[in-house]
Queue: 2 jobs
Job 1
Amino acid sequence: GAVVSQHPSRVICKSGTSVKIECRSLDFQATTMFWYRQFPKQSLMLMATSNEGSKATYEQGVEKDKFLINHASLTLSTLTVTSAHPEDSSFYICSAPRGNSYEQYFGPGTRLTVT
Amino acid sequence: SQQGEEDPQALSIQEGENATMNCSYKTSINNLQWYRQNSGRGLVHLILIRSNEREKHSGRLRVTLDTSKKSSSLLITASRAADTASYFCAMGGGTSYGKLTFGQGTILTVHP
């Protein structure tokens, strides 16, 4: 089956620093990837749609200057949380559809803790 | 994106029993999917039902969709302790291809 990886799986950073999270599709190409965040015991909230070769599309209320997304290749999208604050602590998950499938393949998630 | 609603929020059953989770949504959809999430992990796709389908089966899973009521249900038969996880419905389609809107989730606990 299709596999999506994320790196790192866990990261702890100090307030004010930036953190980059990578999302890779391992055995298929993904022109579109999606970034979600999930707070404890809550559902996934879509943050943005990452488009290969063009700008990301952000959901309402998501600061594009704070959550920088770069989709530089057909297998890699990165999410950079800039000037992180404790309220940015969350579980960040990416997903990608394979081909024209509606089904999404999810990465294992990245646990971000900002101290 | 507007989330769907799921009920119950939590469900606790014994092994061998059936588990039913319900999902309601508000906007029009192209498809509805169910995902499973083990604690602290990513999501795993379980089953997809298209808007023109009413019922679908996959192993011990049965999904129904009623577009007139904007609702879906997931039935897990003969549950096992390994089925313990959070289950989310996700609505797809509309104007944005591939974009999913998730329900609030049901936490299922199956006791051995």
Job 2
Amino acid sequence: ETGVTQTPRHLVMGMTNKKSLKCEQHLGHNAMYWYKQSAKKPLELMFVYNFKEQTENNSVPSRFSPECPNSSHLFLHLHTLQPEDSALYLCASSREGQGSTEAFFGQGTRLTVV
Amino acid sequence: AQSVTQPDIHITVSEGASLELRCNYSYGATPYLFWYVQSPGQGLQLLLKYFSGDTLVQGIKGFEAEFKRSQSSFNLRKPSVHWSDAAEYFCAVGSGYSTLTFGKGTMLLVSP
């Protein structure tokens, strides 16, 4: 248990569906992140939030929409996804800038788009 | 731009044997270096980190890593591998407020 909780753990959705991934941390961290982990690819940073403000968006398609209502919660809203979006989506948090401090990861949501 | 290279995609080690996983990084300033481990279906867990000071750092589960600036390396070692160490290992680099850059990972298989 790392203190970062992701729900659901598994999700199967059709290409026309709308769903949301949720991430919650009670570590008192100020920064939260979404990563995508696909088979045979490095971890891809998608979004970064610092103090609820989005500070980084790595050219992620608009069918992925993040939301950070407070420092403890992070959502990833999904709509009209493609099969190639199937992956493990990992949430992480850190005290501040990730590069200098330890990042704590959730267990991930395994997403399958059919 | 920062980058991380883990040259070995898979490594098989006999239980009880020693282990070394390689990591080379590219970064313009003094790097902060990390090793994470990921078991199947799980998130990433931090094994150890190097920020400054002693170049040999100790981590959890009996792992250690040595920072060698001249070789731009941060190799992970363990003197005696256990079957429970089978997992995927990721090296990462960052600095200050930059986000972490991860390598592609090395899958460790442990044979009886």
